Amino acid sequence: MKYPAASSIALAILMMGLTSAAQGAQGPGRGQAAPQSAQTAAPIDLTGYWVSIVTEDWRWRMVTPPKGDYSSVPLSAEGRRVADTWDPAKDEQEGNACRAYGAAGIMRVPGRVHITWDNENTLKIETDAGTQTRLLRFGDAQAPAGDQGWQGFSKAAWEIAGGTGGGRGGGRGGAPANPPPQPQGPRFGSLKVVTTNMKPGYLRKNGVPYSETAVVTEYFDRHSESNGDEWFTVTTTVDDAKYLNMPFITSTSFKKERDGAKWRATPCTAQ
After folding, report:
1. How far apart are CA 173 and CA 166, in angstroms?
2. What domain count does the chain have?
């Protein structure tokens, strides 16, 4: 009669051991590192003061184009109709002088940007033109309902060169079952930013519109010149089914400055 009881005790001990082993395999170990913040994981450093270098589209960027000049923008019939109603005086009277400084157009406005980390998972871009502030949020943050002002809601992610996270740097297939060890060293990659929930604004200062349903996708890439100059280029795609027949794509370059000595914060202007 003692054998069944002894067998039950042995079985219980065995089950406890198996449960502990399973939990140890599934859960994080005590020595496992915590997930990296976006700041720590950054493959490129975009912080500092930068000035836009205008080498193309001078007539649309350095001066306000005349009304009705929307060349090279793939406007729909509705988009052209709205552009032809541009009235800067009305914009100023209605408190909308910042329409050309929204997220879909601000990086094309000549001037300087100051990029810093607002916190370890939020990159901040400030502009001296129009005194705008963009917050690029990494992680699981979700856009609130409704428009979030001129700069909308920006979701950011690093895309590591050669990674498998999708996008420009990721592969289509799954990761190999037994990946080879990765060498330690510098990493390279891009910053991807997707912005939604914006107030309707202008792609150009002369009233070329984008709507509240537009989606702005940007890639920030940094590079160095042989003379030591540091640059970043932002490639911007604006998708807007309401006012555009196809995506509107631009590429804008910024050169790094030593400090903020040339920073000149100026308010939005409608003209």
Report:
1. 10
2. 1
